[in-house]
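ARCHIVE CARD
CATEGORY: sequence design from structure
SOURCE FIELD: tokenized fold
FIELD CONTENT:
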């Protein structure tokens, strides 16, 4: 998968080069290209913002640098390639696990990180002709820009690519997997030592009775989901 990220803070995206996502980049599973929006300005101050038409607080990102940056990212593409352009915005659709899976099924993502009050709306209007546009939000709180949202969306997407997770079975059993429907949250997990600071690992987990372990885990999931996320709980599960 190819991923382009356009931002005025390229260093903000460096954490993607760590850990399991970084390995995927090193191995070539992901071709990550981070671009500095200011490289597509032409004035001495490398200006990317201006005052809003119609008035109001703050500044708006100018369309010209975005137009040039996106033209550059889209250059030299094959006729059959139609990338997905993801725009993080507080007014987008909520990003969730099925969307991560949908993005992971594409072969080219371009993330456009806004700052200030956001990007001049004509940028999306213009590029809709060349790309599939997704305006997405990671949640109902206000960030200072799109970069942190892109870290979240890119990590959630890349870890789903074939070969990225060590244990191929890890992803399908995740909290938000459809296979955990009704009680999607995981209960408590334990490792050695058997007793730590006087606290014992539940005996059932050491019983060797796989059926009893599965039943216990299911009951823990049901309890945890109803306590922490009643909105996700299916109330006929005990
Ligand atoms: C924030 C991209 C580009 C700040 C305020 C306003 C809210 C009412 N989940 C997310 N939260 N924030 C972002 C995001 C995602 N994905 C996000 C961004 C940009 C993504 C610039 N900013 C900063 C920013 C305007 N306020 C929006 N309103 C709902 C509380 C009040 C106005 C716009 C942009």
């Amino acid at each position: 998968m190819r991923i382009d990220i356009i931002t005025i803070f390229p260093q903000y995206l460096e954490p993607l080069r760590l850990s399991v996502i970084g390995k995927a980049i090193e191995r070539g599973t992901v071709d990550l290209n981070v671009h500095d929006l200011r490289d597509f300005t032409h004035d001495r101050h490398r200006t990317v913002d201006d005052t809003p038409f119609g008035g109001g607080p703050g500044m708006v990102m100018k369309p010209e640098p975005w137009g040039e940056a996106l033209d550059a990212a889209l250059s030299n593409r094959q006729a059959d390639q139609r990338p997905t352009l993801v725009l993080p915005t507080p007014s987008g659709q909520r990003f969730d696990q099925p969307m991560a899976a949908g993005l992971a099924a594409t072969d080219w993502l371009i993330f456009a990180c806004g700052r200030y009050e956001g990007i001049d709306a004509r940028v999306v209007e213009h590029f809709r002709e060349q790309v599939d546009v997704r305006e997405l939000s990671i949640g109902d709180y206000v960030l200072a820009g799109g970069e942190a949202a892109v870290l979240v969306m890119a990590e959630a997407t890349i870890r789903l690519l074939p070969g990225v997770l060590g244990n191929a079975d890890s992803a399908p059993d995740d909290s938000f997997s459809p296979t955990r429907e009704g009680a999607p949250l995981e209960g408590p997990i334990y490792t050695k030592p058997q007793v730590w600071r006087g606290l014992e690992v539940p005996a059932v987990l050491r019983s060797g009775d796989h059926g009893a372990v599965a039943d216990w885990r299911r009951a823990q999931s049901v309890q945890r989901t109803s306590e922490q996320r009643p909105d996700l709980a299916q109330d006929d599960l005990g």
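CARD ANNOTATION: The pocket of JEH is lined by residues 88-90, 114-115, 117-118, 137-139, 141-146, 149 (CB under 6 Å). The chain has six helices and nine strands.
SHELF: design records, drawer C
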